[in-house]
Amino acid sequence: MSTLEEPPRWRYRFRNFSRAYSRLQEAAEANPAELSDLEREGLVQRFEYTFALAWKTMKDRLEHDGMRVEPRPTPRNVIRTAFETGMIGDGQAWIDMLTDRNAMSHEYDAEAFEAVADKVHQRYLGLFGELWKLLAPEEEGT
User: Fold this and answer.
1) CB atoms near residue 111 (< 10 Å)
2) Number of domains in the chain
3) Per the domain annotation, does 1 fall within a domain?
């Protein structure tokens, strides 16, 4: 009986992040001004779960590389550590994403949904794309 080494956890998480990122890109193809309320809400929901998978992928990758997220691996601490190690280039933009994700999760405000949908198009897709481009070659090297 042969034993195959399990791929690192971050690779599984990255695959899920990749699928979520792809789905978010599909949702973001339309002009944000032309989205119905339902489509805008769908875009924001895809943003929320893509963000969740992004920070968890960063956490798993940092841990795989032997780094500890202190004092504990919360999204904010993971973002800070990822920025400090050079995994992400714009730590403040990721904190802005976290703030928007939290706001969308806790209350409904049509204007806030519209603002976040615009930010997904203007900033957040690009940030997810930068993370994907950094980690994808390493995932393919499995």
Assistant:
1) 7
2) 1
3) no
